[in-house]
Design brief:
With 415 residues, this protein is α/β, with parallel strands linked by helices. The protein is 39% helix and 14% strand. It binds pyridoxal-5'-phosphate (PLP) and zinc ion (ZN).
């Protein structure tokens, strides 16, 4: 059992709060709260080697850098969140003319998306504060992750999702035994209702970009990228690795940035990677602000087949803009057609991504075309979710299979 002390700091006004006093966002301006640690003390107690020698294969190996105590749940999927593989898709690198390209595959999480990282940490927090019920609004993956992590340790979960969520995601919610409530409205409608309901009924709310612990869970992907560099590519540490990630609410990109910032503050990370956010053209509120040189997030009327990043008003927009701006990264926009093409291209190297998962790769293709990325720039792309989550979209990315009579004659006609 280990517990790291911390305070919250508002990302807008800079006010500091004790975690006993505030649960979600800044009471003054609604800003997202950053978790602030005392890195000097932690750095004295913990060395990178302590982490590298951990027996935990997933994100719990970073417990000394996380604002939660060990949640238990040994031998359950809660312990298996994170620890995702990094592949070297050499044929894609050749095609793009890049010297080095890697892909971190978050579809390998227990419920098949990046969201398990956040939900694992929120469940740990829920256990600490003795929450009876956890609740979240979700386009599908955050809910599946919360429902799955909750089921792993016998915690009660309620999930609000738009009725248009892909059926596979709704099936996950139901199979994990969560109370599922489908909203006749958008993700944003579900989001607002969830906040009202959590106040009304005293439920502990995981909402992305609202609960400060989600970014702490998501930062573990940044910590893993650092550990991977240290272990396998120490020469990358002195270079600016470019990391491409798809962006909806902006919490994954902010979380990965937070992970790098924490490591930098510890002196464990030598050079900040450049972070590139990729949004769908039809859901581009954060990219719009970034490209206008602003931190003012104007809501859009989101329309994209990448349901996981279809957001009218991103809830973590300001930090998401800063993730790119402060690291010398950028934002890239891609069309739904480019996203479908990226699904097919990733498929050809054995990686099955849902639309939002393939969006990061589509963004890299675009960035190379636009000259944003030089051939010798090392790049890591994050696939945030599994293609099995949205089979209907996957089928739009490929040609239909022919149906033939079971005779060699019929086969010969099409071979
Ligand atoms: C949630 C999600 C994203 C985007 O994360 P945000 O924190 O909303 O920016 C991207 N891809 C997948 C598969 C997701 O589930
Ligand atoms: Zn504030």
């Amino acid at each position: 059992m280990q517990f790291t002390t911390y305070v919250f700091q508002c990302s807008l006004c800079g006010n500091k709060y004790s975690p006993d006093e505030i649960t979600y966002t800044c009471p003054v301006d609604g800003g997202n709260l950053d978790v602030l640690f005392d890195w000097e003390t932690i750095g004295k107690k913990t060395a990178p080697q302590d982490i590298f020698s951990s027996k935990e294969g997933g994100l719990w190996r970073y417990l000394p850098l996380l604002p939660v105590a060990d949640p238990g749940g040994q031998g359950t999927p809660l312990r298996a969140a994170g620890g995702t593989p990094v592949y070297t898709p050499a044929r894609l690198a050749d095609k793009l003319g890049l010297t080095s390209l890697w892909l971190k595959d978050e579809s390998r999480n227990p419920t098949a998306s990046f969201k398990d990282r956040a939900s694992a940490i929120v469940i740990a927090r829920a256990r600490e504060i003795g929450a009876k019920v956890v609740v979240t609004a979700s386009t599908g993956n955050a809910g599946a992750a919360l429902a799955g992590m909750a089921a792993a340790v016998g915690q009660k979960a309620i999930i609000f999702a738009p009725r248009t969520a892909p059926p596979a995601k709704v099936a996950q919610l139901l199979v994990f035994g969560a109370r599922v409530i489908l909203i006749n409205g958008s993700y944003d409608d579900a989001f607002d209702l969830t906040i009202q309901a959590s106040h009304e009924f005293g439920w502990y709310c995981r909402n992305t970009g609202y609960n400060p612990f989600t970014a702490e869970g998501k930062k573990t992907a940044g910590l893993e990228i650092w550990e991977w560099m240290e272990t396998f590519h120490p020469n990358l540490q002195g270079k600016h690795l470019a990391v491409f990630v798809s962006v909806g609410d902006g919490n994954i990109i902010s979380g990965i940035h937070k992970g790098f910032k924490d490591l930098f503050a510890l002196g464990w990370l030598k050079k900040m990677p450049r972070i590139f956010g990729v949004q769908a053209e039809g859901s581009a509120a954060i990219a719009n602000a970034y490209l206008a040189g602003s931190e003012q997030i104007e809501p859009v009327s989101a329309r994209t087949l990448a349901d996981s990043i279809s957001v009218d008003l991103p809830r973590d927009g300001v930090r998401a803009v800063r993730a790119a701006r402060e690291t010398g990264g950028g934002y890239v926009l891609v069309s739904d057609a480019e996203i479908l093409k990226a699904i097919a291209e990733l498929g050809r190297v054995g990686i099955f991504a849902e639309p939002a998962g393939a969006t990061s790769y589509a963004g890299l293709v675009r960035a190379v075309q636009d000259g944003l990325i030089e051939p010798d720039q090392p790049v890591l792309v994050v696939n945030t979710g599994s293609g099995l989550k949205d089979v209907k979209a996957a089928m739009q990315a490929v040609k239909e299979a022919p149906v033939i009579e079971p005779h060699l004659q019929s086969l010969k006609r099409i071979i």
